[in-house]
Amino acid sequence: MSDGARRPNRVALDAMGGDNAPGEIVAGAALAAREYGMGVILVGREDAIRAELAKHETRGLDLPIIHTDDVIDMDEHDPAAAAREKRNASMLLALQQVRDGAALGAVSAGNSGAMMAAATIVLRRIKGVKRAALGGVLPTKNGVCLVIDMGANTDCKPEYLQQFALMGSIYMENIFKISAPRIGLLANGEEEGKGNVQVQETYQLLKASAATLGINFIGNVEGRDIPAGGADVVVCDGFVGNVVLKLSEGLAEALIGMLRTQMTSTLPNKLAAAVLRPGLRKVFGRLDYAEYGGVPLLGINGSAIISHGRSNAKAIKNALRVARQTAESDVAGTIASGLAKLGTGASAESV
């Protein structure tokens, strides 16, 4: 898009992706259009989308529809193959809107493996990026922390993790406005010599390149440092990151469930809960994945957000907001500039 061209104020949404599609997905689009004044391109089966839009007040809202009958299922046996073969699937058509300049970003709550593959196929990786990565936002005692990677790459070389550190730092600085985000490397101890060979080699790589990259590397951090807020970005491979994500989700749900059980178990507890309810709602809200919308796929030429498969309307609304923010703050361009400091000039690898 030329400098003089009008920048779109739309985000493309895979209306058929997710366990609750298209109902909650379309509802989230309507919320985002109303609350954020943004356009949402709904991609999927037009009759189903229109039936859901009819349930909401949409007068004056920018909610165009792109019809397709093709959908990538949540339980695809080979998600990457499905992304390559189903080129007219709703997920891929949403990403194509970004590639073609019609949308700022794309969001899908569909098959995450397929969305990762599709984004790489359609938008391609940024020049010099070895692997795109998922950055998941987790609540901490006083804020949030980005864990990267959260499942895109189970086997990582130290140079991949070095790039993840840069990408995570840029994302937190641009989206959460954290100055000089603290970058920690996840290990089984804070000492420099801790961790397996991968972690030890990554530590030395980050230590040597932190000044060049302009990142604030603070060394190793342990798992307990994530909820304690010991770092703003925690770097690890996708296998470890996905375990961290699933454990965090399970603990949050268990904690909320235990508190609710205790709050309603006796009359004194119910009375106490009534007094504490405003504060508890804030705590529960911070533990709710829907507050954060979804996880960004960092390292690709564009803004792509992968939402939880069970996303509700609130989660989709927030994912659309994050997709727009990621594009408007030029996260991808800043990553490219950061990599250039390392002299990383290799072309993006073919898919």
Number of strand elements: 11
| Proportion of beta-strand residues | 5-15%
Morphology call: globular
Major β-sheet, in short?
Answer: 11 strands, mixed
The helix-strand sequence is EHEHEHHEHEEHEHEHEHHEEHH
Fourth CATH level, the homologous superfamily of the largest domain = Isopropylmalate Dehydrogenase
End-to-end span in angstroms?
A: 25 Å
- Strand order, main sheet: write it out: 3-2-1-4-11-10-5-6-9-7-8
- Tally the helices: 12
Judged by helices, strands and strand pairing, the structural class is: alpha/beta
- Spans of at least 5 consecutive residues whose pLDDT stays below 50 are 1-5, 344-351
Mean pLDDT: 87
Radius of gyration (Å): 21 Å
Structure report:
This protein is of the alpha/beta class and 351 residues long. It folds into two domains: 10-129 and 299-329, Isopropylmalate Dehydrogenase, CATH 3.40.718.10; 133-289, Isopropylmalate Dehydrogenase (3-Layer(aba) Sandwich), CATH 3.40.718.10. It is 46% helix and 15% strand. The chain is globular. It starts with 9 loop residues before the first strand and ends in an 11-residue tail after the last helix.
Task: Please sum up the structure shown.
This protein is α/β, with parallel strands linked by helices and 351 residues long. The chain has twelve helices and eleven strands.
What is the secondary structure topology, with strand pairs?
Elements: E1 10-14, H1 23-36, E2 39-44, H2 46-53, E3 65-67, H3 79-85, H4 90-99, E4 105-108, H5 112-123, E5 133-139, E6 144-148, H6 158-175, E7 182-186, H7 197-213, E8 216-221, H8 225-228, E9 233-235, H9 238-263, H10 267-287, E10 295-298, E11 303-306, H11 313-328, H12 331-340
Parallel strand pairs: 1-2, 1-4, 2-3, 4-11, 6-9, 7-8, 7-9
Antiparallel strand pairs: 5-6, 5-10, 10-11
Helix pairs in contact: 1-11, 3-5, 4-5, 6-7, 6-12, 9-10
